Amino acid sequence: MMSFLPYFPTHLEALGMTDRNDIALWAGICYGAAPFSAALTSPLWGALGDRMGRKIMVVRSMLAITLFVGLMKWTTGPWELLILRILQGSLSGFAAPSLTLVSVSVPPEDQGRVAGSLQTAMAAGTVLGPVLGAALGPWIGYDNIFLVVAGLALVSAVLVMLWAQEDAAHRGEPQPWRGLTAAWQSLRVDLAATLQSPKLRASLAIVFFVQFGLGATNPILELHVRDLVADPLQWPFWTSVLFSGSALLHMLAMPVWGKWGDRHGHAQALVVCAALSAVALFAHALAPVVLALVAARLVFGITMAASAPCSFGLAAAEVPVERRGGAFGIVFGVRTMSIAVSSIAGGWASAHIGIRGVFAVTGAVLLYSAWSMRRTLRAA
């Protein structure tokens, strides 16, 4: 997916758009449309997978990517691209069902490690995807990258269909079909029961605000570099160090956090994650020189890496196996909703409270979420 997402501006230019501001606006809208729609539908797909099977949900998501991403090659305007991105996000969320399919087949003491390993694989894709797109784009044309991604998704669907194993005993009780309304009510009951866990509810706040701290500050990070570095020729170098260094450490730290959560408790790991991430964001706000900013960003990449494996690990521990897909769908939905809204919110807030103010406020909110989670654990 990341082999074409960074190159939406190039694709929009190929569709005939020329105004720089319009290209930037539509690139942002099309980029965020899929995670926003996925955030709304992931819990429902997860709950449906608990009844029908997680394997078929993974295959369904891969086939949806094959269809909707493949069709993007033939778009003739930004509205068509936007509609396909919305449909892709609504029907092709693969992270939650993939995690659920693997999670139900491993023992409880390995949930964090497995979630961390799968999240690391996805993070590696975000690192390598843009490289693939940059290599293939000039050679075959950026519009043909959509077909490459669609083909890889189809291969993935076949691989899962043929070789992934699923134990039907881990599903919920099948329900007789009584119409669309009854099915919707049944899914709502399952999701409501999942949210009865106070620990899970508190962890969702941490997941949202950790991801929010990343998404709200990423778009303004380059501007912060400009405030700290006088030479414009050095701005691209330091910006790349901040993004690439943080992403690499984030990828390496996720399985470590997953194992730590398995041993010491995923809820406790999330408290530590939120508290240390808050400290790192405060350090961003106070950084007097660019080296201090780099140090703070690298620490943030390490600390926030706990949010994904430990939130999924906590959901696996708190929710019965027959409702795990719905729980994972909720966690994934909260993460993607944060991605969809945080970049817009961060840019808006920076105009009112300044860049350092955005770092300070997101740090304060994260610190509060850590305190709230800690209080929940003590009450339990």
Q: Report on the biggest sheet.
A: none
Radius of gyration: 21 Å
Order of helices and strands: HHHHHHHHHHHHHHHH
Percentage beta strand: under 5%
Instruction: Report the CATH architecture.
Output: Up-down Bundle
The whole-number mean of residue pLDDT values reads: 84
* Alpha plus pi helix count: 16
Distance between the termini: 41 Å
Basic shape: globular
**What would CATH call the class?**
Mainly Alpha
Structural class, from secondary structure content? mainly alpha
Number of strands: 0
Within CATH, the superfamily carries the name MFS general substrate transporter like domains
Write a concise keyword list for the protein shown above.
mainly alpha; single chain; 380 residues; Growth Hormone, Chain: A; 16 helices
Describe the protein's architecture and organization.
The two termini are 41 Å apart. The chain has 16 helices and no strands. The chain has helices at residues 8-14, 20-52, 54-71, 78-91, 95-103, 111-140, 142-163, 180-194, 198-217, 221-228, 235-264, 266-286, 290-303, 307-318, 324-353, 355-379. The mean pLDDT is 84. It has a single domain, classed as MFS general substrate transporter like domains (Growth Hormone, Chain: A). The chain is 81% helix and 0% strand. Helix 6 packs antiparallel against helix 7 and helix 15 (324-353) runs antiparallel to helix 16. It is mainly α and 380 residues long. It is globular and about 60 Å long.
Note the topology.
Blueprint: H1 8-14, H2 20-52, H3 54-71, H4 78-91, H5 95-103, H6 111-140, H7 142-163, H8 180-194, H9 198-217, H10 221-228, H11 235-264, H12 266-286, H13 290-303, H14 307-318, H15 324-353, H16 355-379
Helix pairs in contact: 1-2, 2-3, 2-4, 2-8, 2-15, 3-4, 3-5, 3-7, 5-15, 6-7, 6-11, 6-14, 9-12, 9-14, 9-15, 9-16, 10-11, 11-12, 11-13, 11-14, 12-13, 12-14, 12-16, 14-15, 15-16
